Each structure stands twice: as structure tokens, then as C-alpha cells.
Amino acid sequence: LASVESREWRYEPIKSIEVNVTGTSSPGVSESEDGFKMTTFRDDSQELAWQIGARRNQVTLHCLEYSRWELTSETVRGFLSAIFSALGQQKAKIRTFGMKVLDRFTYHGDLSGLHVGDLFDQDSEYLNAKMFESGHRWHLHTGWFEKGATDSEEVLSQLNIDSSSIAPPDHQPNVGVSIDHTMSVRALSEA
Q1: Are the C-beta atoms of 25 and 48 separated by less than 8 Å?
Q2: What's the CA angle centered on 135, arms 133 and 160, to 5 degrees?
Q3: What is the three-class DSSP state of 137?
């Protein structure tokens, strides 16, 4: 990982607890280490920058200092290359791969000046027309399947967009808009 992102990484094991309550004897409790997470922080702060985790059959990569895809994509590709290389050496079988993009915006100002159409395309097939009529508070959660790159896979998109009032320390009304788009490529079940 250091070859992709030069900051210092912190390793933490992820533990799980299993409780067995079968039979008439007292419950058995066992603890095991079944994954890990590695984190790195923004320069000179305790704010997370990147996090990579692995637990059972799931690998996650979180970018928390995202600015634009054009600027972040090279680092993401480097991490993914390192992760897939390690998984390939372990001969791991991957059935699902996902990516989540989370954008957040805060509107400061007179709420009468907030127009959803300034942020989103009203003609988008993915958005409901009602959200453009609902003032400054609304949410839209939707999802759809698409054909994958091959006949043996499919892509699930989950799009969640929320707008809500937030109360900052200055007590002026602000609005936070959160866009959460998760795409998962899944192997189709074998017949």
C-alpha cells in the first residue's frame, strides 16, 4: 500500500464473537480475528483519508478525501491493483465487486434561493420529478439492474440522494445534500 499512498498506515484487526446456544449446557462464546482494516489520515490531522478493509469474503476501499474522479482515480486504480494482486496470489474467488461514490454539498444562504434544478438535471431518467417540487427537503432512493460486461455477470446500481436541514454552530439554516451511488458487479449464479 505504501507504494500507492506514501502516508503511514495503521493496522487494526477486526474481531467477531460467536455465541453457541444449542443444547442444554451453558452458551459457548468464542472470539476470532476474521479480518482487518488499515487506515491512513490526512496530513497533520486525525481526519481519515483512506481506509481498506477485508473481512470474510468482502474487501472495501474508502476514499474520504475525494475531490474529483479525475484526481482520485489513479490512486484508486493503484489500490485495486494491489488488492487484486494479493487476492490472486491467494487464489481467492470473487463473486461481487462494488464501488461507492459519496458526494456531499452544503448550501449556505436564504432557502428561497435554493433550487434543486441548479444541482441536478430535471430531465434525468434516474430522478423523480417530485423532488424538484418539494422545496429544500426531499429524498430519492432507487436502484436498477443492468447487464454486465459479460453474460455471466450483472451490475446493480443503488442511488440514494437526500436533502435535509442541518443546524450549524452559527444557527443559520443550511441544507445538506448527500449523493450516494453504489455499483456492484455480481457473478450470476451458475445453473
Answers
A1: no
A2: 80
A3: coil
Say how far apart CA 95 and CA 47 lie, in whole Å.
32
Radius of gyration of the chain (CA): 21
pTM of the model: 0.67
What pLDDT digit, counting tens, does each position of 36-67 carry?
898 988 877 788 888 888 877 778 888 877 77
